[in-house]
Amino acid sequence: MKQIYILLFILLCHRLAQAQVTTVNGPSGSNLFGSETTILVNGNYVLVDSNWGNGVATGVGAVYLYKA
């Protein structure tokens, strides 16, 4: 049983080591950029700005899709 835990630990550590940090700057007019984040199964990710506005329409929100 101890060997299973060790193998699981090694697999988890290997998976964590592959993680990366990506910095995405919010577009102009963005107030709450990244207030919600979803990682899709294909590795792409979605960022939400629930209060985005373009000056005319304010607080309408926006969704951004990024390719990994």
Q: What's the structural blueprint in terms of helices and strands?
A:
Layout lengths: L1 H16 L15 E7 L5 E5 L12 E5 L2
Antiparallel strand pairs: 1-2, 2-3
What integer is the average pLDDT?
A: 76
Which residue ranges are poorly predicted, with pLDDT under 50 across at least 5 consecutive positions?
none
Going across the biggest sheet, name each strand in turn: 1-2-3
The outline comes out as elongated
Please describe the biggest sheet, giving its number of strands, its sense, and whether it closes into a barrel: 3 strands, antiparallel
Radius of gyration: 18 Å
* Helix amount: 10-25%
Order of helices and strands: HEEE
Q: How many angstroms does the end-to-end distance come to?
A: 37 Å
Number of strand segments: 3
Strand content: 25-35%
Number of helices: 1
Class by SSE composition = alpha+beta
Question: What do you see in this structure?
Answer:
The protein is built from 1 helix and 3 strands, in the order H-E-E-E. By secondary structure, the protein is α+β, with helices and mostly antiparallel strands. A 3-stranded antiparallel sheet has the order 1-2-3, with no helix packed on it. A hairpin with a 5-residue loop joins strand 1 (33-39) and strand 2 (45-49). The radius of gyration is 18 Å and the shape is elongated. Keywords: Signal. Residues 1-19 form the signal peptide.
List key phrases describing it.
alpha+beta; three-stranded antiparallel β-sheet; about 70 residues; single chain; signal
